[in-house]
Amino acid sequence: MAESDGCSYFRRTGPFWMVIVSIYIILHTWTAFWPQDVPYGLLGPLGALAKYFVDYHYPALYYGWFLMFVIHVCEVLFALKLCSDKGIDSTSTRLLWVAQTFLFGLTSLCLLIKYKPDGRPKRQ
After folding, report:
1. Which of 29, 35, 84, 85 has its CA 20 to 30 A from that of 113?
2. Does 120 fall in a domain?
3. What is the pTM of this model?
4. What is the dihedral of CA 94, 96, 97, 99, to 10 degrees?
5. pLDDT at 3
């Protein structure tokens, strides 16, 4: 979606970051909850790294997944606050920011942080 006005501003995260973050989250979830089902040999160097973490650092991998989830929730709350501060009032636009920030984290949040609204007064 393009920038139409300040109350409905939304920019989509780039496809490169969508692919990278999605692969990371899928692999992290898969290795944390179903490590016996991961085809490590088919994943090349990434599979070898994942197998190493499963074999030698599994608690960090497992609890790291929950930490990642909490961080994404905190980013969503921050995105909601930024939407409010920057005058983005449209409910559907806020929902887009929430969903994108939850799925892609900082790559989405940076787009919202960079947004400079026009001279309208901020909401308090």
Report:
1. 29
2. no
3. 0.83
4. 120
5. 47
Contact (Cβ atoms closer than 8 angstroms) between residue 13 and residue 107 = yes
Does 8 fall in a domain? no
pLDDT confidence band for 117 (50 / 70 / 90): confident
In a domain, residue 55? The reply is yes
Amino acid at 79: A
Split into its structural domains, the chain has a count of 1
Kindly indicate the confidence band of residue 48, based on its pLDDT and cuts at 50, 70 and 90: very high
How many other CB atoms are there within 10 angstroms of residue 50's CB atom?
19
Longest alpha-carbon distance in the chain: 56
CB 27 within 8 A of CB 53: no
Q: What DSSP character marks residue 121? A: P
